[in-house]
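Study this chain:
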Amino acid sequence: MRVMANTPRGSWAGCPGFGLRDLLEQGNTRSEKAQLAKDEINRAFEDLGISNFRVEAVTRDSVPGAEVSQWTITLSSAAEPGKTFSVGFDNNSK
């Protein structure tokens, strides 16, 4: 997830929707960008043929305007409905 978060959108030819860096940076000040990031991650998973899990939520854990954004991404299992996993990271691409 960290690689996906720190990659600029459109910079990887294998999956142009893979990068989320700019969206997450915008999400630090605009909360609706977190929902868009969730949708983009799920779209990238589909493009890559990843079907065993989906993103349920992208949540900013840091305060708006913080120098380093902290995020939690919650994934749900397709094989085990109701089972979720959370991944935390910071988006320190500077």
User: Anything to note?
Assistant: The beta strands are 53-60, 69-77, 84-91. The CA atoms of residues 58 and 73 lie 5 Å apart. The chain has one domain: 2-91.
